[in-house]
Amino acid sequence: MxxxxxxxxxxxxxxxxxxxxxxxxxxxxxxxLSLLKMTDADFxxxxxxxxxxxxxxxxxxxxxxxxxxxxxxxxxxxxxxxTPLIQxxxxxxxxxxxxxxxxxxxxxxxWVGDNLCGNYSNxxxxxxxxxxxxxxxxxxxxxxxxxxxxxxxxxxxAFLKNLNDFTGDxxxxxxxxxxxxxxxxxxxxxxxxxYDSSYHIIGGLFGxxxxxxxxxxxxxxxxxxxxxxxxxxxxxxxxxMTLIWRNNSDLFNVKCFDTWWHENExxxxxxxxxxxQSNKSFYKILEELNTPIFE
Length: 295
What we know:
Blueprint: E1 2-9, H1 25-35, E2 41-47, H2 52-62, E3 70-74, H3 83-89, H4 92-95, H5 102-114, E4 120-126, H6 157-167, E5 171-177, E6 199-201, E7 205-208, H7 210-231, H8 237-247, E8 252-257, H9 272-277, H10 283-288
Helix pairs in contact: 5-7, 7-8
């Protein structure tokens, strides 16, 4: 049975009441083309009425992607299951200047939950923009002009098989080291069974079998409601994912890394080679999943 990936492209939200990264249109589109090299998987991509025509032309007409392998779904971010909760606590003026969209973050779990049907072995959320030169060194990128900054050889059917094998009957998540290389805060420590902020779960790739992911979706929905009302504020989805992992660690299989940077980065005031001697780059996880887990 195939794997199903759920993703989204909303590339024009910066400056609106939703908030979002600026100038990412081609990034998201070229990255998704690279992810589609996992040909043993099907994809569903949520998007807006504003972008659907261009997306269908690019993927279906220009690049001849089979409509059965990639399905686009128009979805209004003003009509999510969590919209009443978000509207209650959201600072819309602040969101206009933010590069993060809380509505989309929470929708990851809504959309994944809505897709837990059909004859698929596993279901994963994957960020459409995950494949790019900021995370992946040059040796794994193509030389196809601007598109080459987002086209990586690391996403392929071997990666897909090993991802499924590593996941097993649990939920796959990725953890970022958070004590030596600070990345993010957490929800209020009082919500943890035992507080630990040394690792922070990222929201770019997670999933597993229908039953395990259904449990994850239920836990997210339960926690986002309780925590938001208790603390009278909106947390990023990754903060809530981190809490769920810490409080239910037996449900998860985790891959961890230390730093987003890789050897082709140029960081002012930093010796990147020295930094990487003691810190594992994110792309190393992608490398590991290109090697058979069980031999």
